[in-house]
Each structure stands twice: as C-alpha cells, then as structure tokens.
Hints:
- With about 325 residues, the protein is an alpha/beta fold.
- It is about 35% helix and about 15% strand.
- The chain contains twelve helices and nine strands.
- Strands 7-6-5-8-9 form a five-stranded parallel sheet. Strands 2-1-3-4 form a four-stranded parallel sheet.
- α2 packs across α11 and α5 crosses α11.
- It is globular.
- The two termini are about 20 Å apart.
- The relative contact order is 0.17.
Amino acid sequence: MSDGRPAANLGKDLVGLEPLSGDQILTILDTAEPFKEISERQIKKVPVLRGQTIVNLFFEPSTRTRISFEFAEKRLSADTVNVSATGSSVEKGETLVDTARNLEAMRIDMVVMRHGAAGAAQFLGDRISSNVINAGDGQHEHPTQALLDLLTLRDEFGGLDDLRVCIVGDILHSRVARSNIWGLLRVGADVAVCGPQTLIPRGLEELGVKVFPHIETAIEWCEALYVLRLQLERMNAGFVPSLQEYNRVYGVTSERLDRSDDEIPILHPGPMNRGVEIDSDVADGPHSLILPQVTNGVAVRMAVLYLLSGGEPEKADAAKEGEA
C-alpha cells in the first residue's frame, strides 16, 4: 500500500495540470519516452509495478481512456480491477466517501477515477492514502489526455516552447481544453481558442490565451490545430443553431486547411463527430496526428503510474528493461 510520499516531485496524486510546473510536466513527458518502445516489443510487459493493485473506478462511460489505462497498467505488470458505476453499489446509493473507505480497506495502491463532478478526484485523493489519478472529472480537467497531446506535439515539432496551438470547438464544456490550456501555457507554448462565443469561457484572455472568432483567422495563426467535439450530452438548447450550421462556420475541412501556406498537423481527443467539427478527409489525412495520440496515451499513462509509484525519472530506461 502506498505510503503517500511524493513521487518525482509530482505529489501523491495527479488531479490536474494546473498545479504543476513546466518542469514537472516535461519530466512526465521525458519519462514517457523510454516506455514507448515497450509497445513495439513481442512481449509487451515489464515488472515495474508487479505486486501493486490498481483500481480503475469509472463513474462515467469511457472506452479509449479506460482501455489505455488498462494497457498501461498491464504492461507494467500491475494487478488491475475495473469498477463501473453501472450495476455497482453506487447505483444503490453508496457515496464517494463510502466507496473510498471500502477501496482503502482492500489495501489497494492506486485509483484511476473518472467522475462527472468537478473536483471528485481531489476529493477522493484527500481521503485515501493511495495514489489517485484523475481520468476526467466533470468540466474540470483530464490531465493524462493533455499530457499525451503535449507528447504528440513535441514528437511532431521537436519542442513546445513558443509553439502556436489553437484549440477549436466546444471549449466551455471541455475538460480536455482546460488541461491542454494549462499544460501548453506551463511549457511555454502560445495558446489560442476558437469557436462560437456561446462556447468560449469568459476570462481566457486574462490567462494569456488568444480568442479567435473565425476559424479562418485561427488557421492562419496556428502551427497546430486541436479540434474538439461538440459535447451535446452536456448542453442545453441554444449553444449552436444546428450541427450543420456549426460545420459550415467552424468545421475543420480540407478546403479551409488548403488555404494555409503551411501544412498544419491536426489533433483530436475523440470521439469524433465526423462531418460536424471535422471532416473525414482531414481526420484520416496525412497531417492527422490522431492515431499517434492514441499510441502516446499508453506511454504517458505508464509514465504517470511509474512516477506516482515512486519511480525515479532518471531510472526510467532501466525500468523499461525491468532492471529498476
């Protein structure tokens, strides 16, 4: 069971990128690099977390994030338990505090949690000594998604300092956008957002984030474009006139990208609404980084698990070989 000691200066838990420094974020990215190679091996496993038990506690449906964490945990040889809210005691009225106490009584080492309420991961982390990793909490943050995005951008450009990145789409409801904004700013990138005024949170300019009302201007400014879906499940009526109108005004199409003098890499966290925020020929095109994002997601999550378990960044290469 975790003794709650800080790991690699990250603290006990990873609940968001806002509290982290640029150096801490870059440490995670650097630690992820050696773990990439494990996924290319015939035997995709190292004994780094052998004997540790990790609970994946998902109060919201998830496919990509949950599977990515499962791959990361199993490739580090951890024992994993998956718990979803559907069919569990949560449906019968058990509170998050009750769940936390029961998990702690089972002598687990880490919890990866997704929850619909902002701050739920911090709430849980404050009440158990096991490490807690936020896999998305309400409209707050999704730190490992942003970390894999940063790793993908660094792979593409060789660095992140002064890189111009524009996030386009439903910024208001997106925890991915919040984590990416904090992460990009911390590592010295220039950040902009673009979308309907109804979907842009107030006060972003105070953080040093540019706001573009027109996607054509955003494409002209940026070096990389991060496309978000419309989170219709979190919206009431009135945010956009229609999906067709959104696509007409803000959709990322090859026609719009072709007007740029530069070839702009495209990122998307998924799931995609093809034909709404992004066209298929862009999502599947030669400048799409969407599949590299998925690949990097496993390596980043392996790095986070390794560091929070007490692994030392400078020994990640040895850990990759099963020697640390």
